[in-house]
């Protein structure tokens, strides 16, 4: 499935897509920004790509449970839809329960959620929490992307690349 984590400022996900026990995409975008809120999607197969626009439209139109777009697949594959508003309000909805409920950070969803929450409770960022979950959860991997809720205009960012650039800069300083 995936791992989604929110630490109060950063909303982060992995990029792997699974179907059963098979990795079918090593990199998939599971985050989006639609003005306000930032959104994350957890599911199996290519469902994320297929229903992303419909779910965003549903949320922005008021997210009435009766207006949830038709799923058209096996309901066990439906996963979760997360919306984080600019003020930090976190909402979760699923096809099984299309009545959005509010969560409080630190919070996480998906198959690596327990690892991610534990990491955030130990002081790690949402991005670090997803990376830690990827070390133990077979359904999490393929890199980490994030949205900074304080800077939503920056959009979806690749955390792995940002971390590597910072590490290289630090090594250059040490060598100098």
Which short descriptors sum up this protein?
5-stranded antiparallel beta sheet; alpha+beta; 176 residues
Describe this structure in words.
The protein has 176 residues and is of the alpha+beta class. The protein has a single domain, classed as Glutamine Phosphoribosylpyrophosphate, subunit 1, domain 1. It has 4 helices and 12 strands. Helix 2 crosses helix 3. The protein is globular, with a radius of gyration of 16 Å. It starts with a strand and ends with a helix. The relative contact order is 0.23. The mean pLDDT is 83.
Give a brief rundown of this model.
This protein has a single domain (3-175), classed as Glutamine Phosphoribosylpyrophosphate, subunit 1, domain 1, CATH 3.60.20.10. It has four helices and twelve strands, in the order E-E-E-E-E-E-H-E-E-E-E-H-H-E-E-H. It has helices at 47-60, 113-121, 126-136, 159-175, and strands at 3-6, 10-14, 17-19, 22-25, 31-33, 38-42, 80-84, 90-94, 101-103, 107-110, 144-148, 157-158.
Q: What is the spatial order of strands in the main beta sheet?
A: 10-1-2-11-12
Distance between the termini: 44 Å
- CATH architecture designation: 4-Layer Sandwich
Strand content: 25-35%
What fold name goes in the CATH topology slot?
Glutamine Phosphoribosylpyrophosphate, subunit 1, domain 1
* Rg on CA atoms, Å: 16 Å
* Major sheet description: 5 strands, antiparallel
Low-confidence stretches: none
Mean pLDDT: 83
Please report the total strand number as a whole number.
Answer: 12
- Quick one: CATH superfamily? Aminohydrolase, N-terminal nucleophile (Ntn) domain
Shape: globular
Global structural class: alpha+beta
Compressed to H and E, one letter per element, the order equals EEEEEEHEEEEHHEEH
- Total count of domains: 1
């Amino acid at each position: 499935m995936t791992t989604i984590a929110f630490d109060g400022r950063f909303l982060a996900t992995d990029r792997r897509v699974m179907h059963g026990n098979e990795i079918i995409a090593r990199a998939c975008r599971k985050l989006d920004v639609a003005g306000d809120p930032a959104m994350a999607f957890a599911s199996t197969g290519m469902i994320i790509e297929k229903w992303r626009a419909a779910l965003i439209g549903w949320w922005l139109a008021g997210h009435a449970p009766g207006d949830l777009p038709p799923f058209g697949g096996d309901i066990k594959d439906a996963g979760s839809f997360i919306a984080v508003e600019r003020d930090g309000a976190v909402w979760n909805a699923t096809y099984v329960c299309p009545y959005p409920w509010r969560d409080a950070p630190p919070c996480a969803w998906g198959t690596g959620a327990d690892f991610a929450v534990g990491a955030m409770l130990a002081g790690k960022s949402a991005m670090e929490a997803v990376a830690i979950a990827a070390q133990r959860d077979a359904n999490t991997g393929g890199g980490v992307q994030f949205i900074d809720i304080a800077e939503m205009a920056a959009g979806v960012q690749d955390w792995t690349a940002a971390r590597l650039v910072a590490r290289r800069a630090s090594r250059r300083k040490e060598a100098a």
